[in-house]
Amino acid sequence: MFYYFYILWGHENVLFNLFRYITFRTAGALLTALLISFLCGPTLINWLKSQQHYGQPIRHDGPASHLLTKQGTPTMGGSLILFALSLSTLLWANLANGYVWIVLLVTLGFGLIGAVDDYLKLTKRNTKGLSGKKKLLLQMVMIAIAAYGVMEIGDPSLITSTSVPFFKNILINLGWFYVPFVIFVVVGASNAVNLTDGLDGLAIGPVMIVAACFVLIAYLVGNHVFSNYLQIVFVPGAGELAIFCGALIGAGLGFLWYNAPPAMVFMGDTGSLATGGALGMVAVITKHELVLAIVGGIFVMEAISVILQVGYFKLSGGKRVFLMAPIHHHFEKKGWSEPTIVFRFWIIAIVLALVGLSTLKLR
């Protein structure tokens, strides 16, 4: 909305001309989402507590300490992230940009799937909500539609291609495999974040780190001068996604205020599926899907740990690779404290982010 201040009055007043710049609006979106989270957080948490008398159901096969330390904590705190993110994006982004709407609708759609899952867990009083098959089917249908939307908006010479890190101007044209590839990236990112969300602050930290990377990537990819200088793919209109990612950082920071150990609220599938889907969709539009696997390496590691654990358990007749999966629970079983795991995973996420960003220059 604020972008239209520039269109209407930018030529008359230098102050309104500021709304022309993506950098200014990204900072504004971040601060706005942060402020909304701070203002609305206490009210939302109190309401969630009043509705969820026993809080989020805790896994009985998980670490025993969770039954003591996390019992009674309300879930669905991801709704705070979604509200702050959506409102801030609508205020600061150029709403004539189709990419903004696609990413925002995918985020809210995944959030809705997660909310249904959280609601079923609460009403059934167990950790099994919406079945995995139903969740995957809904996500895949949603992303298939979004992929076709991106193809309609995008440059015909780029729409079915993806870039390769560390190589100059190399694009792989996926052709008919583009839509399945997009489904794999976004659904995979969404569920990987969901698997990571098992300790206070563990998932939201890397989410913000990855979002910060894509603030820069979206800005550079959407700017013809910078993309030409760095010899990375130029995607017209993708720069507006920097504002969305800025809002995601602000909403994440606000949520972390209440999710820091000991958490006052959990994000639940409402937040984890939505934020993961958002990051995946931004990566698809900016043509940096493979870079997402690097900067989001924490999420990849968590997902692989579950795949290895389940696969080896079935093939070996009951043996395990890890003491418990996802891998953050393995370290809990080994005696690491929760804050130690969280902070060390954040450090790894920062290192991976720097490696991923280096691909923009090392070509």
Describe the model.
This protein has helices at residues 3-9, 14-17, 22-51, 66-69, 78-92, 98-124, 132-153, 178-196, 204-221, 224-230, 241-259, 268-285, 289-295, 297-315, 327-333, 338-358; strands at residues 161-163, 171-173. By secondary structure, the protein is an all-alpha fold. The chain starts with a helix and ends in a 5-residue tail after the last helix. The protein has one domain (27-358). The protein has a two-stranded antiparallel sheet with strand order 1-2. A hairpin with a 7-residue loop joins β1 and β2. Helix content is 67%, strand content 2%.
Q: Look at the structure and give the mean pLDDT.
A: 90
Give the total of beta strands: 2
Helix-strand topology string:
HHHHHHHEEHHHHHHHHH
Major sheet size, sense and barrel closure:
2 strands, antiparallel
Q: How far apart, in Å, are the first and last alpha carbons?
A: 38 Å
Give a quick summary of the entry.
With 363 residues, this protein is mainly α.
Keywords for this entry:
single chain, 363 residues, mainly alpha, two-stranded antiparallel ribbon, 16 helices, 67% helix, globular
Helix-strand layout with pairing:
Blueprint (H helix, E strand, L loop, with lengths): L2 H7 L4 H4 L4 H30 L14 H4 L8 H15 L5 H27 L7 H22 L7 E3 L7 E3 L4 H19 L7 H18 L2 H7 L10 H19 L8 H18 L3 H7 L1 H19 L11 H7 L4 H21 L5
Antiparallel strand pairs: 1-2
